[in-house]
Write a structure and sequence with these properties.
By secondary structure, the chain is mainly α. It has helices spanning 14-44, 72-79, 88-93, 104-116, 121-128, 130-134, 156-159, 223-230, 235-240, 282-288; strands at 162-163, 194-195, 201-203, 214-216, 232-233, 278-280, 324-326, 336-338. It has two domains: 16-64 and 76-154, no CATH class; 175-364, no CATH class. Helix content is 26%, strand content 6%. α1 packs parallel to α4. Residues 1-21, 39-44, 309-335 and 341-364 have low confidence and may be disordered.
Length: 364
């Protein structure tokens, strides 16, 4: 079929295809290395839970409830092999997201977490191997049940099935009591994903002309999307620790403080994740800061490639997203680059449309 990124009469770019093939081979070798590292940890530690404790469980779509997640290899067929600097496949495979399940620091941290609390590894695997967790392979919670393909970390299909947990748009699968909202506010953090149950891919474009089923999603243009994994709370600490793992000046946390028992009374099921068990607050700090409320137009000297708004056909005229910058060249009108890398560029993450007030704590 005709490649929309290739002009009529232009030959297929075999060099790009070769690079993608080489990248896949490198990924496979990295996966084998990762599994070897994992075995070292497992031989040195017997800490793990075969059943995830209720103190660790969290709301959102649960393992086995969505069974149609596809391999990133299938996405490569159309989204890779044509231009390394801009194509999604090449950039994702070299990103921290694509290698979240291979990171040896992650595996070391998981082993330590398991020593502190049997079953805590499930919290880590939930974001670092989304396909493995959704597939029910997070137990034993030391990661020994994961398949080699689960090394793909935060994979394509998981992200493109995410719905807003506040149920304001597409409805994901969340069965009581595993509902990641309080009826008004969605719970954004710690991998509490609400996944779409159909075969459609959700994304930021109204008319993507895709070769698969697709639906536009406002959530995929919201910074709250990133917060789904980039605020991290410890559910056990939130329910059991003194002051629920928060600052002394924080609002009270609803939690029963009991070890074990039903999930209904646990902190994770009665509070937004930013309210308890502080581990990482990347997203909350962004939302509390002025940068999340600042218009691009307020920066008259901003470099040219960061001044542009969204592509034509987008759901908003000027969408704001971190880690995205406007492309220059032939396909700039239809695509923005998702480089999936740390925000090292001045101005990335600027909001290009003012957002309403958040229920998160205001900046001091």
């Amino acid at each position: 079929m005709k490649n929309p990124f290739r002009s009529a009469g232009q030959p297929i770019r075999s060099a790009a295809v070769l690079r993608l093939t080489q990248n896949r081979n490198q990924t496979e070798r990295a996966s084998q290395c990762s599994l070897a590292i994992l075995r070292v940890f497992l031989l040195g530690s017997a800490y793990a839970a075969d059943v995830v404790p209720t103190d660790i469980q969290q709301p959102g779509t649960q393992p086995g409830e969505v069974g149609n997640l596809e391999s990133p290899d299938k996405c490569d067929n159309c989204h890779g092999g044509y231009n390394d600097p801009v194509e999604p496949a090449f950039n994702w495979r070299g990103s921290a997201m694509g290698n979240a399940g291979r990171d040896p620091i992650f595996w070391a941290t998981l082993a330590i977490a398991e020593q502190d609390f049997d079953g805590a590894g499930d919290l880590c695997i939930r974001c670092h191997s989304t396909g493995g967790w959704m597939g029910g392979r997070s137990t034993p919670t030391n990661g020994s049940g994961l398949a080699a393909s689960d090394d793909d970390g935060a994979d394509c299909d998981t992200c493109h099935k995410m719905t807003n947990p506040d149920n304001s748009e597409h409805l994901g699968i969340m069965n009581p009591p595993f509902v990641a909202n309080d009826g008004v506010e969605g719970y954004y953090g710690s991998g509490m994903l609400s996944l779409f149950g159909s075969g459609d891919k959700l994304g930021p474009y109204i008319d993507p002309a895709a070769r698969h089923q697709a639906l536009p999603s406002q959530f995929h243009r919201s910074v709250d999307f990133c917060g789904s994994c980039h605020d991290v709370s410890n559910a056990a600490v939130g329910n059991l620790a003194p002051n629920n793992g928060t600052q002394p000046t924080s609002d009270p946390v609803i939690a029963n403080g009991a070890l074990g028992g039903p999930v209904d009374g646990k902190a994770a099921f009665n509070n937004p994740p930013y309210a308890y068990g502080v581990v990482e607050r990347t997203f909350s700090e962004f939302k509390a800061g002025l940068i999340s409320q600042t218009l691009v137009s307020d920066y008259p000297n901003l470099q040219a490639d960061l001044q542009g708004g969204g592509p034509e056909g987008g759901l908003r005229e000027r969408p704001g997203r971190g880690h995205r910058r406007q492309l220059c060249g032939r396909i700039a009108a239809v695509l923005q680059l998702s480089d999936l890398s740390p925000a090292s560029r001045a101005g990335t993450g600027l909001q290009q449309e003012r957002r309403p007030g958040s229920q998160r704590p205001a900046a001091a």
